[in-house]
Write a structure and sequence with these properties.
Length: 491
Amino acid sequence: MKMDNDNSIAIVGGGLVGALAAITLGQRGFNVTLYEGRPDWRGVKVEEATSGDDKTKSAIKRSINLALSHRGQKALQEAGVLDEVMKAAIPMRCRAIHTTTSRDKASPGEADVFQPYDEVDSSNAIYSVSREGLNNLLLNTANKMDNVKLVFGYKLSHIASDGTLHFVNFENSPPTSSPATYNDYHEGELQVKPALTIGADGAYSAVREAMLRLLPMNFNRSYIEHGYKELTIPPNPVTNDYAMKDINALHIWPRGQFMLIGLPNPDKSFTCTLFAPFKTCTEGGKTIEGMEDLKGDRQIEEYFESNFPDVIPLMPDYKAEFKKNPACRLVMVKARPWNYKDRIVLLGDSAHAMVPFYGQGMNSGFEDVLVFLETLAKCNMNLSKTVPMFAKVRQPAGEAIAELSLRNYIEMRHHTASPIFLLRKKIEGVLNMLFPTAWIPLYKMVAFTRIPYHEAIVRAKTQDTILSYSAALIAGFVSVGAGIMIRRFLR
């Protein structure tokens, strides 16, 4: 079956970014069809999904809770769904740092240090949201639109040089007798030739893979040596309330080369994520145990007793969860260019997948959609002009936030417990209060403004230079002053 439509947009990928793009482009009058290779997971109970096939399981029970911030909120507002999203969102106004590994804490699970995300404006917060709940809301909203169609169970096989998309239904189709080669493909069961194809199909994008065969494209996919494993702090069994009292915070247990984080959920639980090396290694003369090397109950118990003893009373099933839940990899993607002529464009993780340590994966993907819409308006709704202009304008920002995200992992696991780090944050807060537009801390620029990510990096480097020189100058004055006083005393 083959369909041609000169006024249509095909979106490949039914995740968060693809669903948001479907809504907003549908609102602008385009005929949108969203293709998702996995079965429709909406309405499937988590218990059923996690015991079913891998494709449904990955759709329902995927990775970490999400942190929604200003950029993502603006994009959701543009789609008209922000108010609904915020009903189930939990504000996190600070980092709650658990610095001690003492077994003698009076209150298990309570933080020792608090770091506001914004030292000046306490109303600024990031919000804990459910990936599944948000994805379903966006898909359901798109599904109600007359000019938006959702197609599940069809996976992109390849894209022909004339822009025709070939899809295969793996559920119904028998395996082919011979595999496709680099330049020779089997025709898809469903063939579509839209005016524009949007690749929003994630870090392992089939659209991006097809682009690699259509143009000279620079592409890099890399992994860090650390991965993540999900755990849970359930509600207090006696009170049915949160087990930790600091609800409106992102909890961090920094341990130098690894860390545990916890985000609050509406059901009074905390979703916790352990970020650590896969394999046992030596860093800084210290042996760091790898997640994959912790096999039995006793090894897991000793690991938590040594590193996170205050969590143990709050996490009754930590040993069973540790053994059951997989250790997942963290991938980064860099691609140039993001477009193929005016026919294909990449958004979100398919263009710039990043590690999750700045909480900007979803937010940057949503902002991709927003910037695309803004570019579309500047080009008078002309897709042919919009696609190359968007790719050129947005790419530096996508690469910048990927760089920042990796850098922030070091800050979160190392520096958040440092007194010098905390002092620096306080000084930056004071400067931001005195010069609110001229001096904005990097985190505030990233999380609470729409300053392009690459411009935020440049501004932050300038501010760091000024702060370092000022500190050196003050230290010099203090030294000179102390020397004068000593001389006077010795006379």
